[in-house]
Design brief:
The protein is of the alpha+beta class and 421 residues long. It is 49% helix and 19% strand. It has 3 domains: 245 residues, Alpha-Beta Complex (3-hydroxy-3-methylglutaryl-coenzyme A Reductase, Chain A, domain 2); 104 residues, 2-Layer Sandwich (Alpha-Beta Plaits), CATH 3.30.70.420; 47 residues, Helicase, Ruva Protein, domain 3 (Orthogonal Bundle), CATH 1.10.8.
């Protein structure tokens, strides 16, 4: 519980009305009436028209709140934007179990992003690579002249690396510019720097520059989260063993790992989207990182502690920020960050990594016990009931009957609805 007495441990949150949920979040995050009312309003069409091209309108997705999260000894309510049923509920349940042993403990490395400059047709590869390193200080100085505000905040270009790659075009050099982007995602800053450096690097190497752009494999910007999941709450040590058997397949088999990691991204993408960050960049980096050893594998690890409890850990690159981009101008993204009391990109990364671990635990836990369909389909039943034409209290009645029968199908929902009426 927070020092101010507010807690994210909320039993039965899903049973409350939307109005009551809003009141709880309003009190937890010290939101104003205007803040709360904005969740009912679509994004302004004129704002949308400045964000992308050829705007016709806006497309709404549900925004829910994951409860029970305690991260680095602080209670957090986590906004999640996602279209898939069971995701928010699963994350909340996982956080409830992790909370028994103190919740999630997360950390992140310095926010270093990589800018790449590709060089072709180099007469002497070895000498060119050496000459780039000899000119490193000058190159860093020029890079940092492109963003003096970032440098004044403690960020900026920090180092240069040179890679020599074999290719069908012959040998090429790829120069990496390492940039500390502080609280930004960093794409604009990094791209500006490598474009400014390209002419000089071309002169130094006597080669020809082709690409000059940020890499989304942000493997110098790594977030880690761990948690202990209570064995008794899970159902005993035999359930922990079943869980570990299920996890093991993801650790050795890319076919299972792809689905396993998709479950992780269910949670991560939902928070990334809620804060106006680039979910495609995060996805690309995560999946590339999962294959960094030459075979695609799990982004999480699990093992038993000395008491038989399950310990989980996630490690992945997270290129996300709290300044710049859509997250600074989209009103709901701004509010979502306020709900989480985020003051730095590190804060956000810690939350995102924790949610990813929670989401993965919930999925593997379900697969190892009742199966994924039971919880997923109970929520999906409401969608089927509405598709069948159910209204108001009919929705719950039809959905309950579908789940009871284990037949969550549209034709059966229509039959039940007809009987009710």
């Amino acid at each position: 519980m927070q020092e101010n007495g507010k807690t994210s441990k909320i039993s039965g949150f899903y049973k409350l009305s939307v109005e009551k949920r809003r009141e709880i979040v309003k009190d937890f995050a010290d939101l104003s009436d205007t803040d709360i009312e904005s969740f009912s309003r679509p994004i302004d069409i004129q704002l949308a028209d400045t964000m992308i091209e050829n705007v016709l309108g806006t497309f709404e997705l549900p925004l829910g709140i994951a409860v029970n999260f305690r991260i680095n000894d602080k209670d957090v309510l986590v906004p999640m934007v996602v279209e898939e049923s069971s995701v928010v509920a699963a994350a909340s349940n996982a956080a409830r179990i992790a909370r028994i042993h103190g919740g999630f403990h997360a950390s992140v490395t310095d926010p270093l992003m990589i800018g790449q400059i590709q060089l072709l047709d180099i007469p002497d590869i070895t000498t060119a690579a050496e000459d780039i390193i000899k000119q490193k200080e000058k190159l860093l100085q020029i890079a940092n002249e492109q963003d003096k505000i970032l440098v004044n905040l403690g960020g900026g270009a920090k180092d240069i690396e040179v890679r020599i790659l074999n290719s069908p075009l012959g040998k090429m050099i790829v120069m990496h510019l390492l940039v500390d982007v502080r609280d930004a995602m960093g794409a604009n800053a990094v791209n500006t720097m490598v474009e400014a450096l390209a002419p000089l690097v071309q002169e130094i190497t006597k080669g020809r520059v082709r690409l000059k752009i940020l890499s989304n494999l942000a493997d110098r910007r790594i977030a880690t989260a761990t948690a202990v999941f209570d064995k008794e709450t899970m159902g005993g040590e035999n359930i922990v063993d079943s869980f570990l058997e299920s996890y093991t397949l993801a650790s050795i088999d890319p076919y299972r790992a792809a689905t396993h990691n998709k479950g992780i991204m269910n949670g991560i993408d939902a928070v990334v989207t809620a804060t106006g960050n680039d979910s495609r960049a995060v996805e690309a980096g995560a999946h590339a990182y999962a294959a960094r050893q030459g075979q695609y594998t799990s982004l999480t690890r699990y093992w038993k502690d000395e008491k038989g409890n399950l310990v989980g850990e996630i490690e992945l690159p997270l290129a996300i920020g709290i300044v710049g981009g859509a997250g600074s101008i989209h009103p709901k993204a701004v509010l979502c960050k306020k709900i989480m009391n985020i003051t730095s990109a590190n804060d956000l990364s810690n939350i995102v990594a924790s949610v990813g671990l929670a989401q993965n635990f919930a999925a593997v836990f379900a697969l190892s016990t009742v199966g994924i369909q039971k919880g997923h389909m109970s929520l999906h039943a409401k969608n089927i009931a509405m598709m069948a034409g159910a209204k108001d209290d009919e929705i719950e009645k039809v959905a309950d009957q579908l789940v009871k029968e284990g037949k969550v199908k549209l034709d059966r929902a229509k039959e039940i609805l007809s009987t009710l009426r």
